[in-house]
Design a protein that fits this description.
- There is one protein chain.
- By secondary structure, this protein is of the alpha+beta class.
- The protein has a domain of 155 residues.
- Helix content is 33%, strand content 24%.
- It is built from 14 helices and 21 strands.
- The longest helix is centred in the middle third of the chain and has 32 residues.
Length: 513
């Protein structure tokens, strides 16, 4: 995911397309919409993990947005809300007839696919919304509306209305996260209007009258496969086309209205038969790879009960942190200890005892046994879930191609209960995690909601020192004039010498009157 835009969600009337840099800092006063933006990532994840009957799961295991009616901004001028996602796909992903995500993952050249989703209601008490989808790829744009039972109500291809074909073309078969999977309805009853029927009708009307229906069907299906960019040449060279067909295509030329009409039907057929399903799976895969850490993490316990479970991911509050560390291989434990020692001068280890395991904090440079994490104060226990997650992305290799899908890690207030010096250290940890992930081909994006001047300033210092690039950090400012006003969202960045070009209004000032 390269960009995210929210519209009419709580205090955010329109964020604009926010670039998700390797490090995206969300900065602003309390109740300005930072948490709404940060928590939208786990909200997308929980919907993509579950079987739902609508694009989003507002209330789930990770976050609670209430309901769609509660999520709609009270500042909205109409009864609607929406999001726009921009994701990277391979340059040939949209051309091949049969695609697999694994083969797509190995491609290098990429381009953006933009997916917009809007809920709309007739009034604020309406419980049956209409979903409007807009998807743009290459120079194609498809816009469709779907009712709450999965029936397509309207369809526009590159600005032209094809709604009369929608009802008999496809319907929603299931929801794969925010984007639905469609079932193509190849209805061939005489007089029935559908994309396939119109495509076949177009083909038959431009073949020799003596050419049979079987050949017309072969030609229609051949045209529906392959890149739209070379439709003209494919139409001329199609083996199923007869000589009359080839003369017609040549007479039209590559820029004729007839070829555009054919192209619209081919785009629509490809979208419902293949592209929509591939994009739905790709979006779902990216969203399920999101990670999230809540602002209030679990405090350290003196003992954790040993469980015979494989723990692959830290939960948002870090409650399973002890079992996660305990299940690491010895080489991974040594790697994590060295990493902790490098940045914080301490290491965290696990010690089993009588069916339980404890977390111990110690200084490797001394021979002391160390201290149970429950006896060391609140700071390290709050920081540890974040540190383990960041370390694991860059150091703990898993089966499969983790690098095939971007890992978005949303973190709320990592500075809580940390001394200013440790807060600044967190900036180095963020940069190290990005660098380590790159080395193993992992596209890591950190979305960090913070009030810490130390984290922001430390990132600027590292940019000035050449340890990072200004483009690696995007600072998003959330500003409100009052509690009863909508949020203004704008982006800023660091200069080459590490100076932040704009701080949010009132970030430092204290009203002492």
């Amino acid at each position: 995911m390269e960009f995210l835009q929210l519209r009419n969600i709580r205090s955010l009337t329109n964020t604009g397309k926010i670039r998700l840099a390797p490090i995206t800092l969300l900065v602003g006063q309390n109740s300005s919409g930072k948490s709404t933006f940060a928590r939208f990532f786990p909200m997308l994840k929980q919907g993509a993990e579950a079987r739902t009957r609508e694009p989003f799961l507002w209330l789930g295991r990770l976050v609670d947005f209430g309901s769609v009616q509660e999520a709609i901004s009270r500042f909205a001028e109409d009864h609607s809300l929406g999001i726009t996602l921009c994701i990277s796909v391979s340059s040939d992903f949209l051309d091949a007839r049969r695609r697999t995500l694994s083969s797509f993952a190995q491609r290098i050249s990429t381009e953006l696919v933009t997916l917009s989703i809007d809920y709309s209601f007739r009034d604020q008490h309406e419980t049956s919304p209409t979903y409007k989808y807009s998807i743009q790829y290459r120079d194609q744009k498809i816009v469709l509306t779907i009712n709450d039972i999965g029936k397509i109500q309207s369809l526009h291809i590159n600005g032209k209305d094809h709604s009369d074909l929608a009802a008999n073309t496809a319907l929603v078969s299931s929801w794969l996260g925010p984007f639905p999977a469609f079932e193509l309805l190849e209805v061939e009853t005489v007089g029935t209007k559908s994309v396939y029927a119109e495509l076949l009708k177009f083909v038959r009307g431009n073949l020799d009258a003596r050419t049979g229906i079987d050949r017309a069907q072969r030609l229609a299906r051949a045209l529906a496969v392959g890149p739209i960019s070379n439709l003209y040449n494919r139409a001329i060279e199609a083996p199923a086309g007869d000589e009359y067909w080839r003369r017609q295509i040549r007479a039209w030329g590559p820029k004729s209205s007839w070829l555009r009409q054919l192209g619209e039907l081919v785009v629509a057929y490809q979208f419902f038969s293949e592209i929509s399903g591939s994009v739905a799976l790709l979006v779902r895969r990216q969203l399920t790879n999101i990670r999230y850490i809540t602002p209030l993490r679990a405090s350290a316990e003196r003992y954790y009960r040993l469980q015979g479970l494989s723990v692959e991911e830290i939960d948002p509050q870090g409650q399973n942190i002890a079992m996660y560390l305990h299940n690491l291989s010895q080489s991974e434990k040594d790697n994590f200890s060295s990493w902790m020692q490098q940045y914080f001068g301490v290491e965290v280890t696990t010690r089993p005892s009588q069916g339980h395991v404890s977390l111990f904090l110690k200084d490797r440079s001394t021979n002391q046994v160390g201290y149970n994490l429950a006896d060391t104060g609140f700071g390290y226990s709050q920081m540890l879930p974040i540190l383990v997650q960041l370390w694991s992305v860059g150091a703990k290799k898993r089966s499969g191609s983790l690098g095939a899908v971007p890992t978005i890690f949303a973190i709320e207030q990592p500075e809580l209960h940390l001394h200013p010096k440790l807060q600044a250290k967190m900036a180095d940890v963020f940069l190290n995690a990005i660098s380590a992930a790159r080395e193993i081909g992992v596209d890591l994006r950190l979305v960090i909601e913070t009030h810490s001047e130390q984290i922001v300033s430390a990132l600027g210092i590292r940019i000035a020192q050449g340890d990072s690039k200004p483009t690696d950090v995007n600072v998003v400012l959330f500003e409100k004039e009052s509690m009863n006003s909508p949020t203004t969202v704008r982006e800023t960045s660091f200069t080459e010498n590490g100076m932040l070009q704009s701080w949010p209004y009132g970030f430092f000032e204290a009203d002492i009157r």
